[in-house]
Amino acid sequence: MPLLERWALMHCFQEENVSEHCHQVAVIAHLLTVIRNKRFNGNLNPERAATLALYHEVSETKLQDINTNTKYHNPEFTKAFKTLENLAEKECLATLPEDLRDEMESLIVQSKVDPEYKAIVKAADLLQAYVKTKNELRFNNDEFCHVEEHLTSKLKALETSMPEVKCFMDIFLDSCTTTLDKLSET
């Protein structure tokens, strides 16, 4: 996963690999779950959410990072890519010793992930991409302007069903998109 480049079709001021992405998504998924539990009567395990986030891109070890616009271009493409991802996840699972597979299946094979946790990880995935986008725009990388528009609308839609997303943005977004010097001042 450290060898798989994200955003490969775009110029980036800060390069990112799939391993770094999954780590950041795990941190955000953990925080989203804590916020949900503390402020919105949730009852999910933050550690489970973080662990699922660490494995959420395992199919990319076989398929590489697929551009979102390509993957969701039309329903037939999406269905085909989801089928490929499922096959890749099952192949990855099959590489494990047999006695470990039952424990790992619900982490690696996304169709086996509980829908509530899957929603948290998806929201964290979008938030991580949004943070990445905001940072690229901070460096005046206008290649990310259309990405910001797309992610802003997706996150706005999520705020209704997942108020923890808005809380995360209100609490953490500024500190995720500033300089170390500015963070040290506070």
TrEMBL record:
Species whose genome carries this gene: Alteromonas profundi
Name of one Pfam family that matches: YfbR-like
This protein's record includes keyword Hydrolase: yes
TM annotation in the entry: none
UniProt enzyme class: hydrolase
Protein name listed in UniProt: 5'-deoxynucleotidase
InterPro entries: HD/PDEase_dom
Domain HD/PDEase residues, every copy: 14-139
Keywords, sorted A to Z: Hydrolase
Family matches, as SMART domains: HDc
EC number: 3.1.3.89
GO molecular function, one term: 5'-deoxynucleotidase activity
